[in-house]
Amino acid sequence: MSTLSTSSLRPLYKASQVRELDQRTIAGGIESFALMQRAASSAWHSFRSRWPQARSVTVLCGGGNNGGDGHVLAALAMQSGLKVQRLSLKPRDALSGDVARAAELATAAGVGFEEWHPHTTLVGEVIVDALLGTGLSGEVEGSIKQAIKAMNTASQPVLALDIPSGISADTGAMLGTAVEAACTVTFIGDKIGLHTGDAPAYTGDIDFRPLGVKAQAFFDIPPTAWRLDDALLGEAFTPRSRTSHKGSLGHVLVMGGAPGFGGAALLASQAAARLGAGKVTLATAHEHITASLVRCPEVMARAVRGGADAADLPASADVVVIGPGLGQESWGQAMLQSALQASSPLVVDADALNLLASRWPDLRRDNWILTPHPGEAARLLGCSVSDIQADRPEAARALQRARGGIVILKGAGSLIAGPSGLVVCPYGNPGMASGGMGDVLSGMLGALVGQFNSLEQSAWLGVMTHALAGDEAAKAAGERGLLASDLASYARVLINP
């Protein structure tokens, strides 16, 4: 496998970093109003490419620079022959600086100026959200909140400028209410908050326009995160050596499936086999052995009645997946204890995470991948789920700092925190909100750790392959009714480009 790095990934920034990039670009000789014009022109091109047949547009403008972008876009639309309804949340005489200049430009182009009020009818075929930019910190309220509600209740599609109004650019959290956009065109630097948390439900398609700003040329403004790209699959999954054998492709041990909870471990072990592991062993309760042999005879099923049966198993494996269907009773505790005593890398999921939180609150390792969903992350960090979701990037970093290794915070816009920093997965779909998906991910991760040297890169590839397989499965037959067991066959295709 070639060595993967963040250098080929799209950098993501916080709002303060993008503002700094903006200021340095201006200081480098580009007038601020010229940059506003660039943003509006880019947004207009995005508009035209998506809605080429539109003959009218409604632009809602706030009082800041985001509103200025909206005024200039309104002028461009008028000059292109569209009917333009321009609505301002601030009176004309309350505007200043570049925003006032932009408003005057639109007026000179023949665009009417109306102050928005709650009873205003939005008449354009497309609505442009130019209310709030990336500076939002508190909850949306007042007239802005009302305007957002008006956009969301209208039947027309919405183009959001830079970020849907009401979404935090840093965390992706929805701050009270937010615009539900069909497309978001974002400028200068892509924002981490567009790709995780609540944001994926509001952004629609994301169209990144750098405006000629080479953000990575400013070495003292390091990206806050990186966005995974499916091109990595082609880089990583190169043809195998003709002399490969099962002993060289990783032995994955899946430990789970307490009495009465066999399904999760079966899903994990089969996923590990489909992702190319040389050997897969399933250590599970005796009652699940027959089901395992019927489901996937390629997996070596071992009956475990208690700690004594499990004690020596982890030492024989290259990687241990611990947690699917584990339970938190004595059987599960014994299995986890055996896994923790081994030196092999671990993939820790489900009830193994809950046991770590309750029985090993201070344990830290460098050679494990933790895969919590927000509820499990909250238990590990001793906070609430709402705390996790309010700032998912910081929650992932905090958990990695506390526990070491690699942390995958699952959910819309899954986050991977490791030595290279924070990485965001933009793939996946709501059809994957079903039982067993996390178990399949754990099995995939185990298979990749067994084949590749890097836990971090295995985490990137595993999360991305899992999400893309879900997308391919949804594309083939729809999101509703998508099962975890559907993913393995699609994932196999993805890793054999």
Explained architecture:
The chain has helices spanning 15-27, 32-50, 65-79, 97-108, 142-153, 231-236, 263-274, 289-295, 307-310, 330-341, 351-359, 374-381, 385-390, 392-403, 437-451, 455-477, 487-494, and strands spanning 10-12, 56-61, 83-88, 114-115, 126-130, 158-161, 183-187, 205-209, 225-227, 251-255, 279-284, 300-303, 319-322, 346-348, 368-370, 406-409, 415-418, 421-424. With 497 residues, it is α/β, with parallel strands linked by helices. It folds into 2 domains: 6-224, Rossmann fold, CATH 3.40.50; 231-494, Ribokinase (UDP-N-acetylmuramoyl-L-alanine:D-glutamate ligase, 3-Layer(aba) Sandwich). The strands form 2 sheets. The protein has an 11-stranded mixed beta sheet, with helices on both faces.
Beta percentage is 15-25%
Would you identify the CATH architecture of the largest domain? 3-Layer(aba) Sandwich
Q: Looking across the biggest beta sheet, what order are the strands in?
A: 1-9-18-17-16-15-14-13-10-11-12
Output the CATH homologous superfamily of the largest domain. Answer: Ribokinase
Can you summarize the main beta sheet? 11 strands, mixed
Q: Helical percent range?
A: 25-40%
CATH classification, class level of the largest domain: Alpha Beta
Radius of gyration: 25 Å
